[in-house]
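Thread title: Can someone regenerate the structure for this chain?

I was given the following input by a collaborator and told the matching structure tokens would be attached. They weren't. Posting the sequence so someone can regenerate them.
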Amino acid sequence: MLLLVVKILAVIVLLICLGFIAYWAAAVIKGDCVLKVEKTKKTPFKVVDMGPRSVTLACTIPIKNVGRQLGTIMDAFVRTYLPFEQYDEARITAHLTDNDVPRDDDYWQAYIVDPGKSKKFLITLEIKGKGDNILRDLETFPEIAMDIIYQVVARSDYYYAKTRIILTKEELRNALYEYTSAEVK
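Best answer:
Regenerated them for you:
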């Protein structure tokens, strides 16, 4: 009798192990979501608004699901890296939102990205100068690094990913020149 109970328990444990193996094999075959920020497809920063003491710039950058399953971007934000020891003529604030449904309240509304599809992040930079003229305040502007940080939920455990982009002083100058030269015409 005891031998029969042991054999039944062994068969149950074997079936459970086979179930786990089948589950993981199916997960490997079906794949998972893999989101990738396409840095080469980033649009140049453009001036959206400019006043005597501030300027607002914006760009878009796509994020594509290169995996085989859909995934959800649950949270996303952008963080700037420009210490005041390097540049203290202005205060810079960055915002990240969905380009299709922009928000101005810094709330991230999650969205699903299907396999092979892309969505666009909208990055907005608000630069407020400390002086009376934003163009003079930006004369010594260095480049600024920004990290796009996003949380992905998919078949596997959720994870955070990060991509760095750079706003160079040349790109900033070009955006300011295009805006001010269009204003003159």
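The domain at 35-184 is CATH 2.60.40 (Immunoglobulin-like).
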